[in-house]
Amino acid sequence: MASTAPAWWQRRRGWARLLYPVSLLFFLLSAIRRWSYRLGLLNAERLPVPVVIVGNIAVGGSGKTPVVKWLVDALRAAGWRPGVVSRGYGGRVDGVAVLDGDDAGLFGDEPVLLARLTACPVAVGRDRPAAARALLQAHPECDIIVSDDGMQHYRLARDVEIAVVDDKVLGNRYLLPAGPLREPLTRLTGVDVVIAHGALSEPVWQMLAGTPVVPMRLAGDRFVSVTEPGRSCTAADFRGRRVHAVAGIGRPQRFFDQLRAMGLEVIEHPFPDHHCFSAADLAFVGEDVCLMTSKDAVKCRPFAPDDAWEFPVQAIIGSGAAERILEKLNNGRPTA
């Protein structure tokens, strides 16, 4: 059981080299599509409220969910009333739906987690404009939409674009299927803010000259019981015990490394991103400790063992990002 990202996405040889011609075709088709929207040949739907996109240009976890939480908090503090739309990967929604519960199997893990983290309305659907319309109809009090992972959904017109970038996720810098990129690196030069999750390589820094880049890290210091959310503890409580670390996210290794940095020796159990967990997946735990991400905890809560703990994290983002986003939004905000 491991991440679904192939190892050769990190190299420019073997399968990556063989598939490179296909990635050139992918680039051509995606460029035609994007420019068709920019030139008005395809219509992007403009909602009656502003839209902020939080996305990335690569397949794999870059840390968007904590950024959405950070953004919603910043918008609320500035007087906005946000709602969130999400694709709902791993869910069973046919069409669009506004969340009315915490069924991760139905709505998807990320939407359920976002609803819990942000305490604001969330809608899911492959059709992002339709999901946003459904959310606004159900919650007319919302005066701004945050679209989770929506950079490539050009049918939804946007007012602000935020790209979350983890240099390690960029891999060999090839486009799909030869590499992990959905769009070329140059796409980052057109966004309003790049949030860098970790250090960026020198070539990426040079390319982003003139584009606002703000650093980000994920921080957490306590673990919360999956079965009894009112209970919490620290890493010190697990020392001397055998600890299993479970992660069904885009980059499981980041979670494992973070636990080791806290002084824990963990047994790694990586699963594919958006994995649909069952009780059998956690049967190895027995009398040991099981640690997992918040994204996995929302799916495992109904059958998690007693000694299962989630590790909540928050995005610590450098100064200037919120101010730039709010300034652009306020410039287009109607005056009373």
UniProtKB/TrEMBL annotation:
<dbReference type="GO" id="GO:0009245">
    <property type="term" value="P:lipid A biosynthetic process"/>
</dbReference>
<dbReference type="InterPro" id="IPR027417">
    <property type="entry name" value="P-loop_NTPase"/>
</dbReference>
<keyword id="KW-0808">Transferase</keyword>
<dbReference type="InterPro" id="IPR003758">
    <property type="entry name" value="LpxK"/>
</dbReference>
<keyword id="KW-0441">Lipid A biosynthesis</keyword>
<dbReference type="Pfam" id="PF02606">
    <property type="entry name" value="LpxK"/>
</dbReference>
<protein>
    <recommendedName>
        <fullName>Tetraacyldisaccharide 4'-kinase</fullName>
        <ecNumber>2.7.1.130</ecNumber>
    </recommendedName>
</protein>
<feature type="binding site">
    <location>
        <begin position="58"/>
        <end position="65"/>
    </location>
    <ligand>
        <name>ATP</name>
    </ligand>
</feature>
<dbReference type="GO" id="GO:0009244">
    <property type="term" value="P:lipopolysaccharide core region biosynthetic process"/>
</dbReference>
<keyword id="KW-0547">Nucleotide-binding</keyword>
<dbReference type="GO" id="GO:0005524">
    <property type="term" value="F:ATP binding"/>
</dbReference>
<comment type="function">
    <text>Transfers the gamma-phosphate of ATP to the 4'-position of a tetraacyldisaccharide 1-phosphate intermediate (termed DS-1-P) to form tetraacyldisaccharide 1,4'-bis-phosphate (lipid IVA).</text>
</comment>
<keyword id="KW-0067">ATP-binding</keyword>
<keyword id="KW-0444">Lipid biosynthesis</keyword>
<keyword id="KW-0443">Lipid metabolism</keyword>
<dbReference type="GO" id="GO:0005886">
    <property type="term" value="C:plasma membrane"/>
</dbReference>
<comment type="similarity">
    <text>Belongs to the LpxK family.</text>
</comment>
<comment type="pathway">
    <text>Glycolipid biosynthesis; lipid IV(A) biosynthesis; lipid IV(A) from (3R)-3-hydroxytetradecanoyl-[acyl-carrier-protein] and UDP-N-acetyl-alpha-D-glucosamine: step 6/6.</text>
</comment>
<keyword id="KW-0418">Kinase</keyword>
<dbReference type="GO" id="GO:0009029">
    <property type="term" value="F:lipid-A 4'-kinase activity"/>
</dbReference>
